[in-house]
Amino acid sequence: MSTAEDRLDGLPRGRTFPAERSQGPAIRTAPTVIELEDVWLAFDRPVLRGVDLNVREGETVAVLGESGTGKSTLLKLILRLLVPDRGRVCVFREDIVNLSFEEALAIRRHMGMVFQYAALFDSLTVYENVAYALRENTDLPEGEIEAIVRERLEFVNLDPDRVMAQLPGELSGGMRKRVGIARAIAADPEIVLYDEPTAGLDPLAVDTIVDLTRKLQAELGVTSIVVTHDIDAGFRVANRVNLLRDGRIVFEGTPEEMLASEDPYIRAFLG
Asked: What are phi and psi of 262, to 5 degrees?
């Protein structure tokens, strides 16, 4: 039986949405990269109750919902940090629920994670933070690692010469979040997961993170899930939106379709 790594081979403001955010034919016919089917999970109480979710290659899907509805739990399931009580969680068409630890780790190496509030290592410099996954998971020489770190920092509009030697505590909140994105994409992941990427940021920093999320899709073809309660930011980055309520997906469609919905809960949520 082949390993999971072997099986992966080949793999504006104001509520207006630019044309490139629409569900074009290429995305509508792209293969499914992430799929959750009838997923149930409970801790002290039910958290997810029969969730179905799919994300196509090159697509950005926003998962919206009130606090405590299980949005971040979805990301932990996709990362295989949790396993469901029932249901299937497929990544790259591979059901990851019953994989061994090593096989799950091989799948996880194809994903980047942008944590809420960046979650950088406080005692490591910006350079060491971005280089961390490359040092852990590759045998690249230090010269190549430095070149990649510089490239990723430039991609998120940070000056490598200025920030590489700094500690996270010396950066603004928006800069820390951009370093977090640079770290997430250091190893060229096919999937990037975002947990509340705009939380705690001022409006200008939110605009920067939104632009970077869209840039990753447009220039690198990255597949993304953005978990957020920031409706405006979610609408601005997403091809499709899923609304989570009481552990269930109660809406799936484009931002425009959600805005046009007459469902009382959706109207109250948007209001």
From this structure: -100, 5
Q: What is the mean pLDDT of the chain?
A: 88
What does the radius of gyration of the chain's CA atoms come to, in whole angstroms?
18
Selection from 239, 178, 200 nearest residue 23 by Cα: 239
Could you tell me the pTM of the whole model? 0.87
Tokens 């840039």 map to which residue?
215
Give the pLDDT confidence of 32-58 residue by residue, as tens digits.
999 999 999 999 899 999 999 999 999
Selection from 116, 112, 162, 114 nearest residue 134 by Cα: 112
Site of tokens 């919206």? 64
Q: How far apart are CA 220 and CA 186, in angstroms?
A: 12
In terms of Cα–Cα distance, which of 202, 187, 197 is closest to 75?
197
pLDDT higher than threshold 60 for residue 247: yes
CA-wise closest residue to 224 among 242, 207, 206, 208: 242
Q: What is the phi/psi pair of residue 168, to 5°?
A: -55, -35
Kindly report the CA angle at 249 between 244 and 253, in degrees rounded to 5?
A: 100
What is the percentage of the chain residues whose pLDDT exceeds 70?
Answer: 90
The Cα 227–Cα 33 span in angstroms is 17
Whether the predicted pLDDT of 21 surpasses 60 = no
Phi-psi region at 188: left, alpha or beta (left = phi > 0; alpha = psi -120 to 50) = left
d(CA 245, CA 134): 38
> Which amino acid, residue 127?
Y
Question: Looking at this protein, which amino acid is placed at residue 259?
Answer: L
Cα separation, 163 vs 158, in Å, equals 7
